[in-house]
Each structure stands twice: as C-alpha cells, then as structure tokens.
Amino acid sequence: MNRFSITLALAACSAFCCAATEPSVTPIPMRVEMSAEDAGFTIDSLTRVYIDAPDRDAALLEEQLAAAGMGHALRVCDSVDAPRINFRLKPVVDGISSHEGYRLSVSGDRIDAEALSPAGLYYALQTILDLKESGGTIPAMSITDQPRLPYRGMMLDVSRHFRDKEFVKKQMDAMARLKLNRLHLHLTDAAGWRIEIKKYPKLTELAAWRPQKTWKEWTDNGARYCNEGDTAACGGYFTQDDIRELLDYAAKRHITIIPEIEMPSHSEEVLAAYPELSCSHGEHGSSDFCVGNEATFEFVEGVLDEVMELFPSQVIHIGGDEASKQAWKTCELCQKRMADEGLMNVDELQSYMIHRVEKYLNAHGRDLLGWDEIMEGGLAPNAAVMSWRGTEGGLRAARDGHRVIMTPGGYCYLDSYQDAPWSQPEAFGGYLPIEKVYSFDPVPDSLPEDAKPLIIGLQGNLWCEYIPTAEHAEYMLWPRMIAIAEAAWSPQQRRDWDGFKGRAMAVSDRMRKAGYTTFDMRNEVGNRKEALVEADHLARGCKVTYLLPDSGLPAWHNGYPASKEATLTDGKRGGWNYNDMLWQGYMNTGTRERLDVVIDLGRVCDLSSIGADFMQICIPDVWMPEQVTISVSDDNKKFKTLADIHHTVTTDAGVSFKNFGWKGSARGRYIRYRAMAKQGFLFTDEIVVE
Ligand code: ACM
Ligand code: ZN
Q1: Residue 322 is among the residues annotated as catalytic for this protein
Q2: Which of 132, 227, 298, 367 has the highest CB neighbour number within 10 Å of its CB?
Q3: How confident is the model at residue 58 (pLDDT cuts 50, 70, 90)?
Q4: Distance of alpha carbon 247 from alpha carbon 327, whole angstroms
Q5: HSE (CB half, 13 Å, CA atoms) of 291?
Q6: 483 alpha carbon to ligand 2 midpoint, in Å?
C-alpha cells in the first residue's frame, strides 16, 4: 500500500414488538426490532435445548453453548420439558427475508429461536449469549432481526507481517460473535507471499521469507527476500492444509474467507521468484506483472486454479490497486499487446488484464472482486468493486449496476491512529477514532433506490506495515471492528453513538477477559484540543491573498485544499490528521517555496503574536518547514521582517506538531507569512494573530 493520503452492535428486536420499553440488554450489533415484557427466562441447570437443524449445525450450536458455560446444563432433546430453548429451521419466518435473519421470543418458560437457515439460528444464538451476558434473567421479549448488508467484512493483511492460523481463528471467533461474516485475507504483496501454491513452489520457498522481522527494517534494507530455512529467515505462509483448516473453522462460524491474490501490481515478491514475469525480466523491485507476456496469464491462472480448488468463496479478490504501469509504457511485449488489442493507454492495458482474469474466473463459476482501480480503463462486466479511495468509485459502480463493498479509507482503514498519536504505537498515519468509524453510513440516501441493493457490504481493513505483532494487530482491530459490525448489520435509524459506545465498551471488556488485546475506550484522549474549539483571533475572517500563483506555483496542493482561501483565517483548527479537510497542504517540486500569503487585517492594529502550527509525519512525506519568515506592513508594499525562523528538520517517528511564530510588539495592517520546506509536504491549519 503506497497510500499517501488516507482519505456500528446488541441483539435486535421485533417487527411487531408490541410492548413498550426496550430491555436494558447489551447485544451488538443492535437488533432490528425488539419489544420487552415483564417476566423473563433464566438459563439454569434445568434448561433443555431442542435443536431442529441438520447435524452439523446442531453440533455447532451445542459446541458454542458448551463454550459459553451452558453446556453441562443443556442437552439436545425432543421432549417438551419446560424450561427450554428451541432452535428451529422454518421455511417461513414472520418478518424475516434474509437467510441470516432470525426471530427470538422469550417468555417465562422458554426461548424460541426460528430462522430460514442455520446461519440465522447461529445468529439467534449469538443474541441469546449477548442477552445472557448482560446478567441474570433474560427479559421476556420478542426479537425480529436481520442484517442490513449481506457482506459484513474484515480484512487482514498477512503479507506485511505474517500471522499464524491460531491468530486468524481467534479473530474469527470475535467476528462471529458480532455477526461478521466475511474474512478477506490479503495473502500476497511485496512483503511476502502467504499461501502454498503447488505449481509454483518458489512462491513459498523464497517469496514468503525475508531477513528482517519487521516490514520497516525490511524496506530500510532494500526489501530483499531469502530462502525458507535460512537462519535469518522471517515470515511464513499457510500450507494448503492450513487453509483447509481455516476454511473449516470459518464455515462453522458462517464466515466466508475471501482470498486476495494481488495483480497486476503489489507483486514484487512474485517477480523476485519468477523474474521472467516482469517487463524487465529481473530488475529488483519491479511491482507490476508484464501484461504483454502470455506467461503472466499462465501463472495467474495456475495460481487461481489452486485458489479456487481450496476456497469455496463465490468471489475471488484479485487486488488491482495501485499499479505503477510505468514499465508497460516501454516494454515491447506490453506495447505489442496494446497494439494488437487496440488499447489506447496503459489504463486500458490494466483493464485488459482484469477483463481476461474475470473471464477465467467466470468460466470457473466464480466472480471477480477488486479494489476500485479496476474501474480505470473500463470495468469488467460482472466484477464487484471494493471502494477504498473514498466512496465515489463505489457509488459510481453501483449506479452502473455493479455490486459494491464500501471500505473507504477515511472510515474503514484501521491502520490509522485510533487516538492521539502521541498516546499510541506508531501507525501508518491518519486519525480514525471509533466514533468516526461508527458514523459511516455505507448506503447514502443520495443513491438512487435501484442502486441501493448493490451496496452489498461494508468492511474494515487492517493493513499491517506498521503492525509487527499479533497483540498490536488485535489492538488496532478491536473495538473499531465492533463499529463496523453494527454499521453493517443494524438499520441506520437504529444506530446512535451514545448507546453504541456503552455497548461497545461492554463487548471490549468481555473480549479483554477472553484474552484479546483491545484499545480501551475509557482511556481515550480524543481529538487534538485545538480542534475542539474555534480559535477567535485578530485575523479571523480576514482576507488572505496567496502570492505563489503570481510566480506560477499553486496556492495549495490540489488534494488538500481544506476551505481554500478561507482556511487560514476561518478559526477552524485541524485535528490529528492532515486529511480532515481542516489542514491545508502545500507541495512543489524543484523549489523550497510552499506557502506565501498576505493577510489583510482591514486596519492598522497593535500586534503581539503571529503564528501557525505545522504537522510532521514522515511516513506519508509530511514535514516541518525548514524556514518561516513573518513580516508586517502598513501599505502592503514595504514589509518589515518580524521573525526569520530556521528549523533543522529531523526524521522522527510518529506525528508531531510545532508552532512557528513571532511574539513581541509591533503595529501593522498586512501580515505576510512565508514557509519553505526542505522536502515533501507542508500542512498548516490557521495563522493565528493576536
Ligand atoms: C489499498 O489500500 N491499496 C487498497
Ligand atoms: Zn511488459
């Protein structure tokens, strides 16, 4: 992932829940409809369970009941002894249209769970467990509950740092409790190939191993691979037996594992093992397959054959993101392919590959899923799109009739800081507190009614470049994945942050007791204090003139305009993330010039301080200024320098903030603020004048 920018749960209640108040139970995701009555049901040693479902599903329900500590008291029976819990599959269940939906009715002597499919019964059980966990007697009630979206997913990047199958199983346990049903495994990327492919053994003899443990050390040392068995070899992969074990574990929990095999880019590890598949036939660090070479398709099809043999998933993720496409422009084979196929540009060459792979998958009864870049150059006819670069691509794909999974970076990229960066382990960047994750509505009202059902899913993604350990990965996933679970399951009108917050804390507590490492929402610092209140100062609302456009340079970087000319004097301060539309970004190549503005205060004023905060986060190339000059004038012609600040820019980990300003005593109407950089981007949010 070369991203520079990084651009809702309880058990629910019934359709005809006639009764009055909602019980004070704490399941997640929040159920669709629920009604509560007075009496209740207590699960105790006399409780019987009757399970009317196929053996495998009944066994699974029993297993989970036992794991919840109810097993010794419960048994499968067909007697009508009260009290009892009945699990029944039915061809029709009132108020339920989804095979994952269920109805629960709780009375003084029984709980009846009904569903159209074993998945529905499984989710009914999760809700019963939630209700039981909230303690004592389960209030009498009826619940009619079904998911808003059929695809409720989590993505784990096991390439950047390999995680073993026990870790993956543990995360699936947590997912299943929250009614999450898709685990997307990012199995291949530059940092390591993580699945055994019998036809291409070098993928796991070489491309799964590196001499450095962490991704950071690995990239700092030239991103080289080593052989399995070398004394320094770090990494690993899932054997095909491991994959079968994970698939079996997932199936029992009604989770579909979706494999991702990256193409045409993010494939440095493949091209290290099989250099003939790159345009250069060997240059270290090539990321893109040669699309002109038939051998590429033979390889991809060979890999997909084994992947399809293993994974029952209807969709196969083929990546498709962030192709450089540079080598294709000069590669003879790629150029010949473009000429032969009448392709106008390299975007169409990428599209050619995706169409061809889609045909291959379709011929084998599967569907293609890819990151939203697969839309560039023309989207393959049956492809489904994962919208990560914001929501616009996904909304467009849905309007064009394609299925879409929403996973926009600004709401779903769990590698972002979840709290004040200084309080957190180093992260990729960004700032994504759980409240923001929860605020996302994957199916906006603005979408035409006929396109809405095409938004089939929501997914949280955990990219792991900066996440070297299993504990750290869990910490980044939980509790934010709880918010994804509720946003994907519960109807928009049933969601509310305050209620969710308490429920999410209860779930996190339960998870911690069960041995998960989770971020503790009770200790949350929150956003940067400056961002919480508007700044009132002398220059607020004053006109700002950008001087750099006079010499042909942009006033600000197109990607980070914030509120354009209003940004620096609107009183709105930025938060922990430069991407919050409150920080304005500046970037020019070949010059140190970044920001040069004049603020007109409207009249000559007494001045005591002038300053602006800058942010530094080296990973995405955001730096402190190297020099700032602040000057003042009465006539906007003759300026007197108040401060000329020189700063030694250092490469520090994490995110830092620093004010570059002047303090003293002066008079003037016009203030010029100029900032220069040694490298990369500068970001500031406000020029505060007192
Ligand atoms: C991505 O983050 N490159 C899909
Ligand atoms: Zn080529």
Answers
A1: yes
A2: 132
A3: confident
A4: 38
A5: 35
A6: 43
